[in-house]
Write the structure tokens for this entry.
Amino acid sequence: MSTKSKSPAVVDSVESLLVRMAEIREAQQIFATFSQEQVDHIFKMAALAANKQRIPLAKFAAEETGMGIMEDKVIKNHFASEYTYNKYKNDLTCGVVEEDKMWGIRKIAEPVGLIAAVIPTTNPTSTAIFKSLLALKTRNGVIFAPHPKAKECTAAAAKVILDAAVAAGAPKDIIGWIDMPSLDITNAVMKNADLILATGGPGMVKAAYSSGKPAIGVGNGNTPAIIHSSACIPTAVNSIIVSKTFDNGVICASEQSVIVDEAVYAETKKEFVLRGCHILKNDELDKMRKTLVLDGALNTKIVGQPAEAIAKLAGFDVPKGTKILIGEVESVDINQEPFAREKLSPVLAMYKAKTFNDAIEKADRLIKDGGYGHTSALYVDTTNAKDAMEQFEATVKTGRVLINTPSSHGAIGDLYNFKLAPSMTLGCGSWGGNITSENVGIKQLLNIKTVAERRENMLWFRTPGKIYFKKGGLGVALTELQTEYNSKKVFIVTDQFLYKNDYHKPVTDILDGYGIKYQVFSDVQPDPLLSSAQAGAKAMMDFEPDVIIALGGGSAIDAGKMMWLLYEHPDCDFMDLSMRFMDVRKRVYTFPKMGQKATFIAVATSAGTGSEVTPFTVITDDETGIKYPIADYELMPNMAIVDVDFMMDMPKGLTAASGLDALSHALESYASMFQTDFSAAYSLAAAKNIFDYLPTAYNDGQNVEAREKMAYASTMAGMAFANGLLGICHSMAHKVGMHFHVPHGVANAILIKQTIRFNATDNPAKMGAFSQYPYPVAVKRYAEIARHIGLTGKDDAEMPEKLIAKIDELRNAVGIKATLKDYIADEKAFLAKLDLMAEQAFDDQCTGANPRYPMIAELKELYLNAFYGK
């Protein structure tokens, strides 16, 4: 082999470097257009050429550096070419490398450009081969910055790869090198490259990270190997010898210390001696300490030298053929004990550990002080001492944790574990100040463009398993207590008004007829409290029902849902349950599975909330006074019963408020970003029923048709918003109800006008963001509702105001006043709470579905408009 290999133009100055880098950049731009087939051919030919030259290059490296063992360098060159090729030969690195058509994702690989590859003196040819092959596989250009003591052999290795790559079709200048390295030239190459791939000492790696360019640097190693009392001692000792003597210990992953359990210390020591290692005597130990470190740093004269030569340098002789010099030491402080350092030679520290915890503490200190993030090793019985292995891997802070493995060979991968990537560049992660903790490979040298096509969320329409609806249908529905559920105990949840007026009697009469035991809980407030739900859950736990029947309007059914949840899962945390989410499928908190103890049946007694068919419950926290809308499909009742017999005596005020609550459900779910064709049909049908029948139900409560149509409207609107969701009208109404106890339906009746005006624009200040909502269509949707209820107009633009006028007409007809001021007497108190309410409304669960994204200041303005009637 020639002793010199130079670039076409010698690179011996910063000026010549910049010229050479420009040539490589030009070649790389051409190379970036190559197909996968072309790249793979070049990659293969380069790997073959390097493999064929493994012996000459090893000889060259050994002669030039004076380090290591030539035969071992042959193995490293062979590994760098053969194993690198085998690992990446089938990997895609050009164009589309991954595609999922269903999800609309494509990943496209692009080269990073020009790589500055810093090469160490310890592994000059193998590292150059490895980095060249990675660069070729990823269509990058590369220029090598060799160590001054290894510049010729590094250049020779690079030229072997370059000549083979060009012969296979690569651009002629795709690989380059610095002929006469200097600090200035190396700094310049790092500053002008697109990416730095740095292997070397701490100073060089730090310079790479300080260059201002992206850098993949690797830290120094100070690998400790623990021998656990359960280990096979011959296997452990001979694995360490194989590793530590490989290339005279220059691989940074090689063991620097061995920490032995005192129970097997004597056996371990004996095995080392038997296999040709020398245990240093007291005077030899002191001489070696003075030799290992000079002026506070590792003595470079020992790096990669055989044990005999190092001993002679220290001033004593050891038997010919000695493999490793072992110093029995106690301190793990690298500032006090030279043996505790990384030694890059066949010199090993040996510690006695009193316990396994002591061994881990020693290893941890050695790692943190001298090889943070690099490599650690443990010899252990993996079957009978699994706990020790798990404790070790959980404690040590290293990128590679090797079990029963020679660390030099094990860390570089694919030799003792075939899923660990083969690499001559071993990352140490943030522990070692590196960008990666992995064995560096092709993925670090690629830019991946992710092409993400727009996709709509999978949608659904979810309802209770059964919905019974017909006047007088209660008895038919409840036959399932016997036929389907074989019920023995029923827990009834209702409120005080309904209980005192015997609304529960039709249910309990049926239960009596079936001989089913039951218990009634009636302590439910109009705005149900958490404490009430907790009390009801406790009563359920004592009674142990298999069926829960919630009888009432939204309050009783909402309270019943929370009791059901706390009964089945008493350890649930309310704040976790009430946690806000953007998408129910991605929420942080996962609701527990319901129905394990009891079936939930909701019997509606008012036409408004639709809670009997929704996964929602609204609960007020007693301590804070905050009203929480809680939503999850696990809260969906198993059965809903809509029997208008329960609604014939609804008071006029409740009829009006609940009717307009149902209307707001229909209107908001129709305008919602989450609206679907399925939910829209129910929204429209509900709205039509309410406009047609609410005045009659209000004025003539005994009109069966009107009552029944309103009952169905409420349930249909509930199914619509259970799937299409709501918007800011409900967000704002929740907070008005919480702070000023304005009835929920009344608040919605007043705020819906402001909501429609806010949303009804084709040019909102901010549109809501949801994949199935492509552009503002609120005007169009309000126009569709208006026409569906019989309104006419010349175009969509004028229809929202006509719809508002129709709502005002309906509101007036059922006796609900026009402004919040009519229901909140204390104006100062309202204004004092205004900022808080606006912020809370912004954060309400319902806000996320609104078609126009509201700013807090805009919500504040809507509150003021609703209060003063602007």
Observations:
- Confidence is low (pLDDT under 50) at residues 1-7.
